[in-house]
Amino acid sequence: MTKSDLHHLSGIRILVDQSYRKVRQNDLLKNIFETIIQYRWEDHLEKMYQFWQTVLLDEHTFQGSPFVPHPHL
């Protein structure tokens, strides 16, 4: 994966998937994420694709505030 791969949604999806695959294999992080996300991984990943699509591609597909659900974590 190169920086130029992040100029398309397909590259963003690959990066997000790879990152969360590593999280789910990490002994420290996996339990934290599994406790919160539980069975909703597809929904969470879709939000992450949309968030990064909005940030990196300036295509406003993400709705909401990314900080609201995180302060208590």
Q: How does this model look, in words?
A:
This protein is an all-alpha fold. The chain has one domain. Helix content is 59%, strand content 0%. Helix 1 packs across helix 3. The longest helix is centred in the first third of the chain and has 17 residues. It is globular, with a radius of gyration of 13 Å. The mean pLDDT is 91.
What would a concise description of this structure say?
The protein is mainly alpha-helical. Helices cover 59% and strands 0% of the residues.
Topology:
Elements: H1 9-25, H2 29-37, H3 41-57
Helix pairs in contact: 1-3
Supply database-style keywords.
73 residues; mainly alpha; 3 helices; 0% strand
**Domain unit count:** 1
Shape call: globular
Largest sheet: none
Mean pLDDT: 91
**Count of DSSP helices?**
3
Helix content: 55-70%
Please tally the β strands and state the result.
0
Q: Show unreliable segments.
A: none
Percentage of β-strand residues: under 5%
Q: Give helix and strand order, one letter per element, not per position.
A: HHH
**Rg calc:** 13 Å
Q: What class would the helix/strand composition place it in? A: mainly alpha
* Spatial gap, N to C terminus: 30 Å
